[in-house]
Amino acid sequence: MADLDYSHKLPTLGLESLELRRLHHDQLCTYKILFNKIDINYNTMFIVSFNTRTWGHQWKLCYKHSST
Questions:
Q1: Does residue 56 lie within any of the structural domains?
Q2: Which residues of 38-53 are buried (b: 16+ CB within 10 A; e: fewer)?
Q3: 17-54 residue pLDDT tens
């Protein structure tokens, strides 16, 4: 397998890319924060918009804007 590049090794080994694994972990962590599985106040990280005028579910997340 030493002669294969990264993108060809992944399917051979049955693995996902590092980028996809990080995205999945971020989504899982966000879910746990929102539904109190982790004891972190979600208001410190993002804003939940309960705007019902748009399509989709009620949990629309917005990042808090930083001044620095």
A1: yes
A2: eeeeeeeeeeeeeeee
A3: 999 999 999 999 989 988 889 888 888 777 887 766 66
